[in-house]
Each structure stands twice: as C-alpha cells, then as structure tokens.
Known about the structure:
eight-stranded parallel β-barrel; 11 helices
Amino acid sequence: MTYSLKNLICFYCMAASSLFFFPETAASQTKTVQLFAHRGGAYEFDENTLSAFESSYNEGLRGFETDVRLSKDGELVIFHDASLERMTGQQGSIEELTSSELKAITTKKGNPILFLGELLDYFADKPGIYLELEMKTNEKHYPQEKLEQYCDQLYGMVMPKKPASSTYLFTSFDKRPLRYIKETYPDADMLFITSKPCSEETVRETLELGLNRLGCNLDGTSRASVKQAQEAGVLVSCWPGRSIEDFRLGVALGCDYLCSDVPVQVKRWADNHIKEVNIK
C-alpha cells in the first residue's frame, strides 16, 4: 500500500516529541543513512558554487550532489539549469557559451560559475566523500557522438582525482549516458534517477540498466517498496529533501541515501535528537 507524503509525515510526527521512532531500531539496531547536500545545499547556500560545497563541508557534511554540463568549447561546468537566467540573470545556456564567456559571469550573489576541475580539486584531499555527479544530458544538446565524448571526458577527469575512500557516482535521468558508461567503464559506480517513487517498475528499470542504485521520488514511496528494492539488491536514494520532516520520513521508510536542500539544518537537528541513526 502506498501512502501520500502528507499522510506519512502526519503519522510519523506523532510517534515521539523528542526522539523519532524508527521500526528498525526497535531491536537496538542502529540505522545508517547517507545524507547528502543537494547542489551543495541549494536552500542554504548559493547552489552549485564552490562556496556552497565549502560551507556544507565545514558544517560536517560529507555527502554532496551536483550537476555537470558541457560548455560550447568542451569544458565541463557545474550548473543545474538549462538556462543561466535564474542563477545569474543572464540569457543563454552553458552549452551555448565558451568557458571564457562563462568565467566572466557571476551568480546573482556574486560567486563565479564553478568548473568541474575546481570541484574535484577541492575534494581531492578529503577522504570519505560521497559525491553524486548528475549528467545533465538531453538529446537536443547531446546527440550520441557528443554524448559519448562528454562521458569519456567526465570519467577521465573524475576517476584520477577520486580519493580511494570516497564514493563518486555518475547519475542521470537520461539512460543513454548510463548505458554508455556501464559498457565502456564497468568499474564506474552509477545511479539511475527517476521522478517516480520507488516501485516494482523503477526497480526493474534500474536492474535492466545493470545498476544497483536508484534515486527516486520520496512522495509516493512506501516502506514495503523500499524493502523490496533492497531485497532485489538495489540501494534506494530518495529526493527531494526540503525539510527535517522529509528527512525523518526518508529514514522511517528505510532509505539508504537521503538528498537534502537544507543539509546543515537536518544534520544539526539529527545530531541533537536522534541517536539511533548514524548519518554518514
């Protein structure tokens, strides 16, 4: 049976006032959850900027998510939106501008646009990092030949700079780069993202790609579906995480990974209120 996000939150919020009850901890078993900062902490900092990642890291976060696009002259750039307008006030897109043009643009808060190499350099000497690199590809801007070049370049930049103790994942809604990397670089860790909840359908899609990680929508996901996914060998990562309540719900559902736009707020709350959950 699948419950709505609203109903689940209401149910679990009544469980306790100071400590939140998790069924899996009833037998004195500690639950481990990887909390990660969506775009470096999109609601708390200037998203996808080096400042955001630095700030989240300094607050104790060790999990992060970001987005990777390709500039007109072939530079890998950290940026979520298809358009520059929301973040910078400028017209155009990453794919339409050269790296020199992009370096002359700042966000509305005054931060430079971040390039992949800069982010990898920042994390290169920091062990134990969990980093999701979302491949923002589509058929319009990334036809197959360009897609393969993008994947080759991305893998070639990322892997030499990954600390041995860190987990770097190549993720996407677009199945094409996942298939290409799986075939070309079988050692790569990957995750399939979907806007749908965890279900037999989305687990099947993940397994058909040869993957064992699923990023799915928190709303509509049930505890039973998460358990079934895990029994099939699939790790479950849920999004979006926009509040402490979303985090509490995700833990109650048994998710392995939880995305958050307010990771610092969540971590501070969890550190002070729940001892049964080990946040990585």
